[in-house]
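Sorry, any thoughts here?
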Amino acid sequence: MIEFLVMAFFVAQPVPAVAATPTDGGTPAAAAAGSPGQGPLGPVDLKEPVQINADLIEGGKSQATLTGNVKVKHRTLDLKCDRMTAYFAPPRVVTRVVCTGGVHAVDGDRMARGERAEYDVASGVLVVTGTPEARQGTTYMRGTKVRLTLGSEKLEVENAVIIFESPPSAPSSPKRKAAPAPARTAPVAPEAAPR
């Protein structure tokens, strides 16, 4: 139930005042229409919604703090952390998130982790700090700051130490033609010596 409330809190847009006003003194027009996704608590069809799940949420007018199993999904980014502060602008559109504790982000074949991350929703830029590490394919990096942008293959690491891993290769032993097996002959019984 908490997950649903958190998702609706950040993903749903407010219903226009006209649609939310009861037309007959009873049920709001949007709810009376019965169309999925148009109720005052139902999800709205957004182009690129930010979906956030957490165990607990405490919110205000312009920001909310989420704790426990925090998961953020936006476009191709999956972001997990222990605690997050989400900042939003009217009408409840997430503009930026700041994650702390056990940050782990995955975007395609790129991975980054550290102790703190800031994600700007509009630009799709994620910056990870706090002893950050990153991996892209077979390349492992660590440094003081990791920056990745959604929709780009680019990965920036400041003060980087890079380890290029060789892909595993099959042992290359030269193939030899097998020597033909010796012809097998039946044992011959010794001839009896003439007496």
In short: Residues 2-11 form the longest helix (10 residues). Confidence is low (pLDDT under 50) at residues 1-44. The chain has three helices and twelve strands.
